[in-house]
Amino acid sequence: MTTHTTGSFTFADWQEKVIAEAGGGDGEGAGGGPKLASAVVTNHFTGGIEATGTSCAYTIAYTAGEPGSAGSFTGHELLSGTLDGRVGSFVLAERGTFDEKGTVHCVFEVVPGSATGELAGLRGTGGFTAVHGEPSVAYAFDYELG
Q1: How far apart are CA 142 and CA 3, in angstroms?
Q2: Is 36 helix (H, G, I), strand (E, B) or coil?
Q3: How far apart are CA 56 and CA 64, in angstroms?
Q4: Residues 6+ positions from 85 with CB-CB distance below 8 Å
Q5: What is the pLDDT of residue 112?
Q6: Phi and psi at residue 105, in whole multiples of 5°?
Q7: pLDDT at site 76
Q8: Residue 47: left (phi > 0), alpha (psi -120 to 50), or beta?
């Protein structure tokens, strides 16, 4: 039986660094091609998922080589806390896109075999849309236990 839960999360910390940049810029600051970055992020979840201080690592591709450009990302997030009152931990595999305005569309799924405690056997998928500048991001998560 699938259970649907919702809630929100806030970014507690975002540390980003450039991994690689494509050459070929025109010297005028117009962006020289794609850029890869990595980010280590901490989030606080409330609602169906209650998890303070999650650990998340992303690889980000900026298509025009600069923040404020469109792109995509992949990452994993370790959540420890509760899911609808059940205690445990699990890992989400996340992937998404973002546009020039900073709107993020992300889908995620539980990494098979990663759940512990009362969440052992957890399977599920979900997602969120984050609008740049909004302090809180709503998520939806559909899951099964067992």
Answers
A1: 6
A2: strand
A3: 24
A4: none
A5: 98
A6: -115, 120
A7: 98
A8: left
Burial 76-109 (b: 16+ CB within 10 A, else e): ebbbbbbbeeeebbbbbbbebebeeeeebebebb
Q: Please, what are the averages of pLDDT over each run of 10 residues along the chain (146 residues)? A: 97 93 56 86 97 96 78 97 98 96 95 98 97 94 95
Which pLDDT score is estimated for 26? 45
What's residue 146's pLDDT? Answer: 83
CA-to-CA dists, residue 7 to 60, 64, 66, 80, angstroms: 25, 33, 31, 16
Q: How far apart are CA 73 and CA 140, in angstroms?
A: 19
The per-residue pLDDT for 132 is: 87
Asked if 111 and 124 touch (Cβ cutoff 8 Å), the reply is no
Amino acid at 94: E
Only one residue has tokens 């609602």, namely 47
Please state, as a whole number, how many other Cβ atoms lie within 10 Å of the Cβ of residue 60.
20
The H helix count followed by the E strand count for the chain is 0, 9
Whole-number pLDDT of residue 29? 43
Alpha carbon distance 64, 71 (integer Å): 8
